[in-house]
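Weekly structure sync, notes
Attendees: PL (lead), two postdocs, one rotation student
Agenda item 3: pending single-chain targets
PL asked that the sequence for the first pending target be pasted directly into the notes so everyone works from the same version. It is reproduced below exactly as submitted, 525 residues in total.
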Amino acid sequence: MPYHLFKCSECIPEREKHAVIKGPGETLSDALPLGYLNTIPGSISERGCAYCGAKHVIGTPMKDVIHMSHGPIGCTYDTWQTKRYISDNDNFQLKYTYATDMKESHIVFGAEKLLKKNIIEAFNAFPNIKRMTIYQTCASALIGDDINAIAAEVMEEMPDVDIFVCNSPGFGGPSQSGGHHKINIAWINQKVGTVEPEITSDYVINYVGEYNIQGDQEVMQDYFKRMGIQVLSTFTGNGTYDGLRAMHKAHLNVLECARSAEYICNELRVRYGIPRLDIDGFGFEPLSGSLRKIAMFFGIEDRAEAIIKEETDRWKPELDWYKERLKGKKVCLWPGGSKLWHWANVIHEEMGVEVVSVYTKFGHQGDMEKGISRCEEGALAIDDPNELEGMEAMDMLQPDIIFTGKRPGEVAKKIRVPYLNAHAYHNGPWKGYEGWVRFARDVYNGIYSPIHQLALLDISKDEISTDKGFMTQRLISDVGLSDEIKNSTVLREYTGDYDALKRIKEREYPEFSRKSDLVGELSAI
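Predicted structure, written out during the meeting:
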């Protein structure tokens, strides 16, 4: 049987069905751990809650919004500034966090008056911000505060503001994924269709499931603009509140992270007839295929091919430089939901690393199916691991690096395994052609850091060499490479700028004729 029970979890035998080892020739029915179930008592899960999934993952990236938590201060503090959801309005949504700061007395006597007072105070403190999202927490949900009624009352008194209410208490699902679903459905129920946008192109999309981590959204939007496509709204990275109210006018929903945002795509298809197209912005081949699919939908394939050729010619030699030096290195792929399967195969194909483990804290069965099917035989797949299981897995697998969040990442560092922050990145953006090379560079820097090599020494028992001089990454990584590879005039290290977004912001885009303009010209003739 492929099930794997960690030694540290022998006292919780139910955990056996949450970890499997992918064996030779096994199908997904043989090697699929249980997922998206209630956390087993005693397992000390590192999961986030449904409130976190709604506010932290999806809501907060909206850039022109006051994000108010109706609950204790700890809830909003826990979901503040731990991801680099940057925006082009000076990162307003990252600078401030808001909470009603409920206390014990409010649990007894109610906190609706407190909520209204806080809403008005927040709008007065930031008079240029006219939009707000209010997130329900466990505390306010349990006492039954009517947040919707308070929001309606404030909007009647202050007609220039608009408020969205997300009833997403922490207990609203087995994990943060439950909060993803709640905010998706609440947004389309309350706000989509309440603003009519200006359409400037014949090709209009919603870019869904994109959160602009260190500028990912701006990289992808650059490709869309070069193809003459109007991005009506981004759900939700670097997105505007009113832009997201106009999602019903798009011609196509382009979906990146299916785990967090497929719900609103499916509803937009049912209610407004807008088709859904799943894409992948990570890796040369997946990205090229994604741009081709979008172009085929609109009949502008030549525009996509021009971008693919230009970007591949520019950046592929640099990706291959890193691939030659990363071949055979072992990685534990321990990210969120979608990166589990976005990265599982492409990092092996395009960077040469071996995926020895995949895991997810909140993924569904579908995430595990796609992730396990794309990784190598022998890989250990884990659902909802805890800290002890993670340490035991690293001890068993001996990875060269792990891609994960900061909590398990810091644990890995303590046992001398380098990590890259899969949630907030180290030196992103990582999407796009150049971004994928930046990712490879960060992997290379993590594995071959001379400082990390020193960390592998135990000064209490290891013999410390005194005859070695100054070490560089190249001296470590190039051992065993052929002279042809080491001295290649084609392959090269990353040559991009520290600020990868600067060129994008300065780019001038072509003006494409619209079909309506051509019809008008023909009518005049």
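Discussion points:
- Residues 296 and 304 are 9 Å apart (CA to CA).
- The chain has a mean pLDDT of 92.
Action: rotation student to compare against the earlier draft before next sync.
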